[in-house]
Amino acid sequence: MACEKEIWQKIGEGFVQEYYNQFDNTNRMGLGNLYSPDACLTWEGSPFQGREAITGKLVNLPFKRIKHIITEQDFQPTVDSCILIMVFGQLQVDDDPPMAFHQVFMLKSQNCAWACTNDVFRLGIHNIPV
Amino acid sequence: MSDGEYDYLIKFLALGDSGVGKTSFLYQYTDSKFNSKFITTVGIDFREKRVLYKSPGPDGTSSKGQKIHMQLWDTAGQERFRSLTTAFFRDAMGFLLLFDLTNEQSFLNVRHWMSQLQIHAYCENPDIVLCGNKCDLSDQRVISENQARELAEKYGIPYFETSAANGHNVSQAVEVLLDLIMKRMERCVDKSWIPDGTVRANGPFTPDPSEGSEGSRCAC
C-alpha cells in the first residue's frame, strides 16, 4: 500500500534537494537565502550566527568543486511546528577521496516561508584508526 | 611494500593549509609512484617508502645503516573543513609543515599549525621541518626567503624552499627531518644503552615486523 508522505517530510525533502543543489552547482551565494536572518551554523565545531556570517563561511570554503551524495535523510515534526532533518551522506571535494558527512537542519515557517534556523555539520571521520 | 624486515617504522605527517602542495610533495618524495592508502574512517591517506639511514658513528666512521620504513601521512582534504582529527597527530614522530610561497595566508597560518602541533603532538617540541613550497613559481612569490627563515629561526626549526613540481629540496627536507628523529631516538636510546654496555644490532626499538608502530615509541 502506497503511503502518503507526511507534509513535514515533503517540505524537508524539498529543502534538502534545494540546499545541496545550490551547494554543488552554484557559487553558494544563494545558500544564504535558505537561512533565517538570525540562523545558527555550527561547522565542524565553529559557530557562525546570522545569514551574513553563514553565507561568508560557505562561500569561502577552500575548494573549487564539491559533490554531495545523500545516503539517507530523516525528518521529524517538532512540538513547536518546526521540522528537524538529519542528512547522512558522502561528499567529494576536487580530487580528494570521498568522505562521509552528517548534517542536521531545523526548519521554521516564518512569514509564510520555510527557512533554516539551525544547521550543524560534521565530517564522518574519527579519532581512532581501526 | 609494508611487509618484510625493517629496523624502524617512522611516521611522518604533512601539515599546512589546503592547496599548499602537501599531496604533491609526498607524491614527489615517494618517487612519483602512487601507492596511497586511504583510511576512510579517519580521513587519512598515507604513502610508504623504504630508506637506508646511515648515521655517522662516534669516531666519524659511517655505521652499516638502518632500514627505515617510512609512513607519510596526508590529510586527504579534511583540513579544508578545518577539522583535523586527533587521529591525524597520533603517533607521528616528525612533521613536515608546508606553506605556499605564493600565498601569504598560508604563511600566516604557519602559526596556527604550530600551535595545533604543540597541543596534539606526542610532546611539546616535536621535530618539525618548515617548507616554503612552490619555489619554482618565482614570478608569483609573495614571501621572501628571509621572512620564512626568520620565522623558522623563531621556532628553532630547519627551513627549506621546496618545489613539489620539480622536486627541488623535497628529499633533502625529508632527510633532515629523518636525521632529527634518528638523533632524538639515539639520545633516548643512549640512556638505556650505556649502563649495561650491550650493543644490539638493531637497538632496543627493533620492531617486531609482524606488529604495528613500535618504532614510533620514543622514551623522551
Automatic annotation (TrEMBL), chain A:
InterPro entries hit by this protein: NTF2, NTF2-like_dom_sf, NTF2_dom, Nuclear_transport_factor_2_euk
Location of the NTF2 domain: 11-123
Chief subcellular location: cytoplasm
Top-level lineage group: Eukaryota
Annotated localization: Cytoplasm; Nucleus
Pfam families per the UniProt record, alphabetical: NTF2
UniProt KW keywords: Cytoplasm, Nucleus, Protein transport, Transport
PROSITE patterns for this protein: NTF2_DOMAIN (PS50177)
Alphabetized PANTHER family for the sequence: NUCLEAR TRANSPORT FACTOR 2
Protein name from the UniProt record: NTF2-related export protein
Organism: Pundamilia nyererei
From TrEMBL, chain B:
Membrane-topology descriptor: Lipid-anchor
Localization per Swiss-Prot or TrEMBL: Late endosome; Membrane
Protein name per Swiss-Prot or TrEMBL: small monomeric GTPase
Organism lineage string: Eukaryota, Metazoa, Chordata, Craniata, Vertebrata
A GO-annotated cellular component: membrane
Catalytic activity: GTP + H2O = GDP + phosphate + H(+)
Gene3D superfamilies assigned: P-loop containing nucleotide triphosphate hydrolases
Assigned keywords, A-Z: Acetylation, Disulfide bond, Endosome, GTP-binding, Hydrolase, Lipoprotein, Membrane, Methylation, Nucleotide-binding, Prenylation
Family (UniProt): Belongs to the small GTPase superfamily. Rab family.
CDD domains, per the entry: Rab27A
Primary subcellular site in the record, as a coarse category: other
Entry-linked InterPro entries: P-loop_NTPase, Rab27a/b, Small_GTP-bd, Small_GTPase, Small_GTPase_Rab
GO molecular function: G protein activity; GTP binding
NCBIfam families per UniProt: small_GTP
Ranges for region Disordered: 199-220
Pfam families, sorted: Ras (PF00071)
SMART domains: RAB (SM00175), RAN (SM00176), RAS (SM00173), RHO (SM00174)
Coiled-coil residue spans: none
EC number: 3.6.5.2
